[in-house]
UniProtKB/TrEMBL annotation:
Residues passing through the membrane, by range: none
Sequence ranges assigned to domain ABC transporter in this UniProt record: 23-263
A GO CC term assigned to this protein in UniProt: plasma membrane
Keywords, in A-Z order: ATP-binding, Nucleotide-binding, Transport
Keyword Transport: yes
Annotated source species: Kosakonia oryzae
Name of the protein described by the UniProt record: Urea ABC transporter ATP-binding protein UrtD
Keyword Nucleotide-binding: yes
GO molecular function, a single term: ATP hydrolysis activity
PANTHER family: CONSERVED COMPONENT OF ABC TRANSPORTER FOR NATURAL AMINO ACIDS-RELATED, HIGH-AFFINITY BRANCHED-CHAIN AMINO ACID TRANSPORT ATP-BINDING PROTEIN
Length: 263
């Protein structure tokens, strides 16, 4: 089922290998007043990779997502998406249209609207809420919504006002709102926060399914969840990359143990 939804190749896909970077950050610096939130940060994420970013509070994880999505402008450095798109001068809307979707930690669904209506709005991000609700969906768009409802286990709740969903269902709906837009790169901030064990297990399985067809960058504190999903982990500390590698490798790193994992 996911195959038909997530294999809409872009023209350049056939020239890409999974080792090619979908996102490259080089020497990014971000300063708030005189505080250095990111310092000379360089990071590369491969096509189809599932990357986890971990690190203590204040390490710069949210700021990292903010500069990728255009919410915050870096003072210096370059951000290259899909090998030749320079994100540094683009607006958040342009970046989203280029294929980068972001899910914030707190669900931000339209609570008065039904589950399906939320997905319809997400499909037509370029229109206002009411215009998009009145606009007719194509058959293909309806199919895509149905597939996402099924994938996120929301089919039987499709007519319910979203405000009546559980916290986990709202998180799933928001992930669905990203998926209907078919992003190439998904940025997810603590997607497992507040989920039940069963929901966490399902979301881990879902992310593993999405990886390969999408690239994912997941910021997460729950090490059990990171262990289940991550191929490769980046540890941030004080706005810099402290370590990178498999979870086992970074867990064995003395500096990572000192500043984040504890002894
Ligand atoms: N707009 C801002 N103005 C001033 N300082 C900021 C601003 N945004 C972030 N900071 C500071 O930058 C540092 C990095 O913050 P950031 O939110 O990116 O960290 P984080 O790793 O996401 O932390 P957490 O795990 O607590 O969410 C923090 O010390 C924070 O106080």
């Amino acid at each position: 089922m996911t195959d038909s939804l997530f294999t809409q190749p872009q023209l350049q896909d056939r020239y890409r290998e999974t080792t090619d970077p979908v996102l490259q950050l080089e020497k990014i610096n971000v300063t708030f007043d005189s505080f250095r939130a990111l310092t000379d940060l360089s990071l590369s994420i491969g096509v189809g990779e599932l990357r986890c970013v971990i690190g203590p509070n204040g390490a710069g994880k949210t700021t990292l997502m903010d500069i990728i999505t255009g919410k915050t402008r870096p003072d210096s450095g370059t951000i290259t998406y899909d090998q030749n798109i320079d994100l540094t001068g683009m607006s958040p809307v342009e970046i989203s249209r280029a294929g980068i979707g972001r899910k914030f930690q707190k669900p931000t669904v339209f609570e008065a609207l039904s589950v399906t209506e939320n997905l319809e709005i997400a499909l037509k991000m370029d229109k206002s809420v009411w215009t998009s609700l009145r606009a007719r969906l194509s058959g293909e768009q309806r199919d895509r919504i149905d597939e996402v409802l099924l994938l996120l286990r929301l089919t039987e709740h499709r007519q319910r006002p979203s405000g009546l969903l559980s916290h986990g269902q709202k998180q799933f709906l928001e992930i669905g709102m990203l998926l209907v837009q078919e992003p190439h790169l998904l940025l997810l901030d603590e997607p497992a926060a507040g989920l039940t064990d069963a929901e966490t297990e399902y979301i881990a399985e879902l992310f593993r399914t999405l990886a390969g067809k999408h690239s994912l960058m997941v910021v997460e504190h729950d090490m059990g969840f990171v262990e289940t999903i991550a191929d490769y982990v980046t540890v941030l500390h004080q706005g810099q990359v402290l370590a990178e590698g498999s979870l086992r490798e970074v867990q064995a790193n003395e500096q990572v143990i000192d500043v984040y994992l504890g002894r």
